[in-house]
Specification:
CATH architecture of the largest domain: 2-Layer Sandwich
Shape: elongated
CATH class of the largest domain: Alpha Beta
Number of strands: 5
Low-confidence stretches: none
Radius of gyration: 25 Å
Distance between the termini: 30 Å
Number of domains: 2
Mean pLDDT: 85
Strand order of the largest sheet: 3-4-5
Order of helices and strands: HHHEEHEEHE
Length: 172
């Protein structure tokens, strides 16, 4: 789920919380039924309410599609041979790359994301590194080891590896 979807979900959740509060207040008769009826009587003929309803419907559909789309297993296609296609779970590739990165001296808490572009793999690795470790040398070592391991295990070239160190801290 991307950042725009998270923002939409946050706003939608706040809106639903406000509706829930009004529903509870109405059910407990803190808000009088005549007030609610009077408000509902003002809705017919107002285009603003129709637009608001359409926006809520579209937001609901967007969240539904996003939610359902994230439940399946994402796969990467490694290629075709004469007997069929070769696929591997995206999570399997990402876990494998993260494990390789974590095995590099001074690197820990690595998480990887993978994307297949033009029959080559693009990787992004987020990790932490220990103090007093040379970042450029460690990054070069990480890239070389990952490229070699991925090629020998998956048979796929690694086109780009982006390394992002989010913390400089000792292993816990």
């Amino acid at each position: 789920m991307g950042i725009p979807d998270r923002i939409i979900l946050t706003l939608y959740t706040i809106l639903m919380a406000v509706v829930a509060v009004f529903l509870v207040l109405f059910a407990l008769q803190i808000i009088a039924p005549t007030t609610v009826y009077a408000f509902c009587a003002t809705i017919p003929g107002k285009w603003e309410y129709a637009v608001g309803g359409v926006v809520l419907l579209l937001v609901s559909l967007r969240l539904l599609v996003t939610g359902l789309g994230g439940t399946g297993v994402s796969t990467l296609s490694l290629g075709d041979d004469k007997e069929g296609k070769i696929h591997i779970s995206k999570n399997a590739v990402e876990d494998y790359v993260a494990e390789i990165a974590n095995d590099i001296y001074g690197v820990h808490n690595a998480k990887a994301s993978a994307k297949m572009v033009d029959n080559a793999l693009n990787l992004r690795i987020n990790s932490s590194i220990e103090p007093a470790i040379n970042i450029p040398d460690t990054t070069d070592e990480m890239k070389q080891v990952i490229r070699k391991s991925v090629m020998s295990t998956l048979g796929v070239e690694v086109k780009d590896i982006e390394v992002f160190f989010k913390h400089i801290q000792a292993k816990k």
